[in-house]
Amino acid sequence: MGSDNEKSIKANPLNEQPLRLQEVREQWMLLGLAAPAVLIIVAIILIPVGWLFYLSFVGSDGQLSLEHYQKMIQYKSYARVFMTTFQVSMLTTLICILIGYPLAYFLALLPQRLAGFFMLAVLLPFWTSLLVRTYAWLVLLQRKGILNDFAIHIGLWETPIKLVHNMTGTLIGMAHIMLPFLVLPLYGAMRKIERDMMHAAANLGASPIHAFWKIFFPLSLSGLVAGSLIVFVLCLGFYVTPAVLGGGRVVMVATQITAILENQFDWGAASALGVVLLVATLVILYAASRLLKLDSALFGKH
Amino acid sequence: MANQISNKSSDTPSALPISIRGLTKKYGRLHALDSVDLEIKSGEFLTLLGPSGSGKTTLLMAIAGFNRPDAGSVRFAETEMILTPPHRRDVGMVFQSYALFPHMTVAENIAFPLKLRRVGSGECADRVAAALATVQLSDLGERKIDQLSGGQRQRVALARAFVFRPRILLMDEPLSALDKKLREQMQIELKHLHRQLGVTTVYVTHDQREALTMSDRIAIINHGRLTQVDTPQAIYNHPANSFVADFIGESTILPLSRDDSGKLLFEGHLISSSPTQDSGGAWSLVIRPERLFFIQDSAADSEQAIVFDGMVKEFVFQGETAFVLVSIADKYNLSVRFGTNSFSSQNAMQPGDRVSLGLHRKDVIVIPQSM
Asked: Which of A136, B60, B89, B202 is a good FRET partner for B54, with 20 to 30 A between their CA atoms?
């Protein structure tokens, strides 16, 4: 008995068709879940960016031309704006690392519950309006501001120091606003480092300083790279804080774009600036990814 | 606390004795370690055995220097180490999680302690190769840690712990993440390695079988106190109290009564005419399941053996052994275990069958009843 039956099952496996249909249906349903997000990305990112990209190649006479890009090469002021943008972004990232690394380290060493409390202190400003925080710095740092008054009162310096409407003020404000973007991924990476790792290093004969540089720091590097890149890229396009605290003396690309739009109403020139910034950012990210194996840093693979 | 001499205590210069006195560590109100005294002999394989939360890992961490005890002394030979930071203690350690460095290759992991000791690059390479050969991983030096299996990681952790020739080796449940077969294989290998290196080894486990398999001596710890420190045979055959009797091996613990002349009785059976020491308290009888044997015809107690009559409640075939639960005096359940190669007639035992069980008098274990 059964041999005929077995042959027919091999030739025509049981329920093959409905099982495959079920799988296909599930895949379509998953795609359906993603559909709204895909639509939004197309509608509010791809289309406008594409339109601006097109505008940047339209000259003042309405014909296709490269005149906006030629202007950017001709006039030194544009180069200066890009230099300032990269300089401010780099310095802000550096300041964030110097302040953020010890902070994340401290948080990672705390017991989970206590760390959550202190993390609130990092996140609280994060939830406050950007504008409020920026103007708060203005109040603190201006000539007759709280910091100058206090320093003069206790005799640190005699005449008010210029702390705002310049590079110093811009960097202070931006570093403050960017700090959580660095601390969060860094803290996550540090939490993942088992405590046994440091015990093992000590047990094998490494002094605390040695253990930090040979074991802890390399293992936290993925978080540091991810956080630094996020901060750097966000800084490149930052508008509000440099505009308010820079007081017109720190001209970054975003500020320049606004100026062109407000003063000359030249959509083409403004778009060209935006396109160059976007391309420059992508080039930097690509270079960083080649140098540092970015995908493993951003997606937390080891 | 019985403290018999271990069967071997070689005094090779490659090993150091450890002397622990009055070691106390409190976490809040909980005594993780409650004034622990322990002498570990040079070259000995000593296992700290206890349930989770008993303080065994805390004790190991105190020897390694990872926690700061509230009081006490830890000496390696004559040198007081209690204030010495971990990186100057020069002890090897295998962690439960292995704690291998994921950003280094296998060879770099093993070379790490050598580089810190400024061993020359030529000698360093030789010693790494020798350590890899010892743990049978010679071909895997260039692998990354995440390319290794659990068993291979375990071996790398081991190689890294002994490559710098420490005179004390600590192991914190090193085999707990491995599957049963691999674990039993590694137990034998670790024992072999210990004999080869001759290093004083302190091993932490909650697995009593592992402790019995590997140790020269076992220190049983519970609620931060040492309950009994002795050889595996002595602990199995003469448990100091019901905690040890229950924790090591299988056992049935039965209450004993005392007659006017001080003799200890169980349901009319004379168990012992003179308990080892008269504590005035109550005593219990401990019966190991494999020490009971079936008797064909019911008999009375004799010079050699005590005979219990009972009824089979449960019969479980488990491969190499079978397990039978026998109810005696309608009150107590006796566990019986026997090899399935013999007693073929008992293989067909049914619940409800009446049986007689014998226990040799030399297998009688009497312990003071726990409070």
From this structure: B89
Question: Which residues of chain B neighbour A219 with C-beta distances below 8 Å?
Answer: 101-103
Q: What is the mean pLDDT of residues A118-131?
A: 84
Give the domain-ending residue among B179, B208, B242.
B242
Instruction: Burial-class residue B103 by CB neighbours within 10 Å (0-12, 13-18, 19+).
Output: middle
pTM of the model: 0.80
B chain contacts of residue A296, beta-carbon cutoff 8 Å: none
> Does B193 share its domain with B270?
no
Range of the domain at B156: 18-242
Task: Give, in order, the Cα–Cα distances in Å from B153 to each of A20, A206, B112.
Answer: 41, 21, 16
Distance from the Cα of residue B357 to its chain's centroid: 30
The answer to whether residue B180 is domain-embedded is yes
User: Residues A56-80: what's their mean pLDDT?
Assistant: 85
Please give the tally of structural domains in chain B.
2
pLDDT at A301: 43
- Specify the pLDDT at position B108: 95
- Better-predicted residue by pLDDT, A64 or A204: A204
Measured distance CA(B71)–CA(B25) in Å, rounded: 7
Same domain for B159 and B132?
yes
The ipTM estimated for the assembled molecules is 0.81
Helix (H, G, I), strand (E, B) or coil at B98: coil
* Residue that has been written with the tokens 């339209």 in this structure: A58
Nearest to A191 by CA among A112, A114, A102: A112
Q: Do A204 and B116 touch (CB under 8 A)?
A: yes
Query: Distance from B88 to chain A by nearest Cα, in Å?
Result: 6
In a domain, B4, yes or no: no
Numbered residues of chain A with Cβ closer than 8 Å to any chain B Cβ: 194, 196-197, 199-208, 210-211, 214-215, 218-219, 302
Query: Is A76-301 a domain of CATH 1.10.3720.10?
Result: yes
From chain A, pick out residues whose CB is under 8 angstroms from the CB of B102: 219, 302
**Residue B33 belongs to domain with CATH number:** 3.40.50.300
The token pair that represents B249 in the structure block:
């091996």
Residue of B nearest to A302 (CA): B102
On whether both B342 and B204 belong to a single domain, the answer is no
**Mode of pairing for the β-strands spanning B168-172 and B200-205:** parallel
Q: Using CB atoms, which residue from A199, A201, A219 is nearest to B103? A: A219
Segment B136-172, tens digit of pLDDT: 899 999 999 999 998 999 999 999 999 999 999 999 9
Q: What percent of chain B has pLDDT over 70?
A: 92
Selecting from B91, B99, B117 the residue whose C-beta is nearest the C-beta of A196 gives B99
Which positions in chain A touch B116 (Cβ < 8 Å)?
A: 204-206, 210
Does B116 contact A205 at a Cβ distance shorter than 8 Å? yes
Q: Do B87 and A211 touch (CB under 8 A)?
A: yes
Asked if residue B58 and residue B188 are part of one domain, the reply reads: yes
Whether B66 sits inside 8 A of A194 (CB atoms) is: no
pLDDT at B278 over 60: no
What CA–CA distances, in Å, run from B253 to A190, B218, B227, B365?
50, 22, 18, 10
Model pLDDT for residues B190-231, shown as the tens digit of each residue: 999 999 899 999 999 999 999 999 999 999 999 999 999 999
**Exposed/middle/buried for residue A220 (C-beta within 10 Å: 0-12, 13-18, 19+):** buried
- A203/B91 Cβ within 8 A: yes
Res. B274 pLDDT band, cuts 50 70 90: low
State the average pLDDT over residues B48-52: 93
Same domain, B186 and B263: no
Every domain of chain A and the residues it spans: 2-56, 76-301
Domain stop point among B197, B218, B242: B242
Under 8 Å between Cβ of B50 and B15: no
B66 in reach of chain A (CB within 8 A): yes
Confirm whether B356 is domain-assigned.
Answer: yes
**Contact at CB, A194 and B97, closer than 8 angstroms:** yes
Question: How many CB pairs (< 8 A) connect A and B?
Answer: 64
Query: CATH no. for residue B318?
Result: 2.40.50.100
